[in-house]
Design goal:
The protein has about 375 residues and is an alpha/beta fold. It folds into 2 domains: about 180 residues, Medium-chain alcohol dehydrogenases, catalytic domain (Quinone Oxidoreductase, Chain A, domain 1); about 150 residues, Rossmann fold (3-Layer(aba) Sandwich), CATH 3.40.50.720. The chain has 10 helices and 19 strands. The strands form 4 sheets. Strands 3, 5, 6, 10, 11, 18 and 19 form a 7-stranded mixed beta sheet that branches. It has a 6-stranded parallel beta sheet with strand order 14-13-12-15-16-17, with helices on both faces. β18, α10 and β19 form a beta-alpha-beta unit. One of its GO terms (molecular function) is oxidoreductase activity.
Length: about 375
């Protein structure tokens, strides 16, 4: 069957290759974890989302092949339909729509207790990213432990399950950490970035009843500003109003969700957070970027204001479930809005070069491959 793969360590090596079709009895990651007897699920791939991570893996910035091989099948944002289940699987059945989590457990205590999303190990095993093959292929097998059901009525948004899990986890982490305050009722949030992560975070914070201001660079109106406003949030162009000016105009935020991919913005956000507030960092910033801030001022304000920085990456099955619940709630509350994030479909695995090219496209909010109908 067809798969889109790279040769890790070799830049621009993305290619289409033929790999054996998986069977229910296969062990997809024998070097990491074993599927217990009867607990495997075979999934037909329907749609796979791609993002900057896939581009960076193709640029050979990171990513490794599973041991003993030279290639890595990429793609970590999965959506498919169950074809076959093992004799001890009760959670899903053939025909169900599903997504599959990304990280597989290593050996740390966190991995052992099911929190592989916060593994204590330096080496992590992620499908389509590091040491485990991904989902840009026609079918895949995994342990039902990592398979998350998507309601049939939400299948048009199923490919957003993984990015939604990232946002749902990050927000939940902030709320959990803020229980330190005993009472925390955030009213105002700034979301920095209006890409897929910023927009899904905007929706989730609106669903929690916050007044949300979502910042990106370009002045509206355009699709990102329209989606933001359709969620009942306010879109702000940082070219027209800086974050600091916005805070002066509307008040300092109790919560900031940072998702611009820009290291300077990560630190500038520290200058505007309100007292007792939480700043969430989700950006993954590659390369080197020196940033100059008034460290003494930030330190003083953060200590005297009891402010909190929460960093968050990845998500386990519970976060996928939370993300899917938020997508469902969002679809009922703001019908048809979230599907506007799905801007650039690619017709089939053969079009892998078009897929890579679209990842450079400024207007592309979400590029995804329609693997099967
Ligand atoms: N933690 C995790 O598990 C996780 C998972 C997935 C992604 N990420 C990271 O999350 C970040 C966002 O991902 P994405 O896919 O949503 O990215 P994206 O599509 O590239 O969106 C980035 C957004 O940030 C805005 N932006 C960039 N620089 C800015 C600046 N200086 N001031 C204000 N806005 C700025 C962009 O504005 P314009 O729209 O005007 O261009 C855009 O709206 C990335 O760093 C990604 O690596 C993290």
């Amino acid at each position: 069957m067809k798969a889109i793969a790279v040769l890790p360590g070799k830049a621009n090596s993305v290619h289409l290759r033929d790999i054996p079709a998986p069977k229910l009895g296969d062990q997809p990651h024998p070097h990491v974890c074993k599927i217990p007897e009867g607990r495997a699920v075979l999934v037909k791939t329907l749609q796979i989302g791609v993002d900057a991570t896939d581009r960076e893996i193709n640029e050979a910035l990171y990513g490794n092949a599973p041991p003993g091989g030279e290639h890595l099948v990429i793609g970590h944002e999965s959506f498919g339909q169950v074809l076959e289940v093992g004799s001890k699987v009760t959670e899903v059945k053939p025909g169900d729509y599903v997504s599959c989590t990304v990280r597989r457990p290593g050996g740390s205590l966190y991995d052992v207790i099911g929190r592989n999303d916060i593994t204590g190990e330096e080496v992590y095993y992620e499908r389509g990213i590091n040491l485990c093959h991904g989902y840009l292929t026609e079918s895949f097998v995994d342990d039902v432990e990592y398979i998350v059901k998507v309601p049939k009525e939400l299948r048009h948004l199923g490919v957003l399950a993984e990015p939604a899990s990232v946002c749902a986890k990050a927000i939940e982490q902030a709320y959990l950490a803020q229980t330190r305050l005993q009472v925390w009722m955030p009213r105002r949030a700034f979301v920095l970035g209006a890409g897929q992560i910023g927009l899904l975070a905007t929706m989730m914070l609106r669903l929690r009843g916050l007044e949300v201001y979502t910042l990106a660079t370009r002045p509206g109106p355009h699709r990102k500003s329209e989606i933001t406003e359709a969620y009942g949030a306010t879109y702000v162009s940082s070219k027209q109003t800086s974050m600091a000016d916005l805070a002066k105009q509307v008040g300092k935020p109790d919560l900031i969700f940072e998702a611009t991919g820009n290291a300077e913005i990560c630190f500038r956000a520290m200058e505007v957070l309100g007292i007792n507030g939480a700043l969430i960092w989700t950006s993954i910033t590659g390369g080197k970027h020196d940033v100059s801030v008034d460290g003494a001022k930030i330190n003083l304000e953060w200590v005297l204001g009891n402010k909190l920085l929460v960093s968050s990456v990845n998500g386990n099955r519970r976060h996928f479930e939370l993300g899917i619940q938020a997508l469902s709630h969002g679809e009922l509350t703001y019908p048809g809005v979230t599907s506007r994030i799905l801007t650039h479909p690619v017709a089939g695995l053969d079009k892998y070069q078009e897929m890579m090219k679209l990842l450079e496209e400024k207007e592309a909010l979400k590029v995804f491959v329609n693997v099967a109908g």
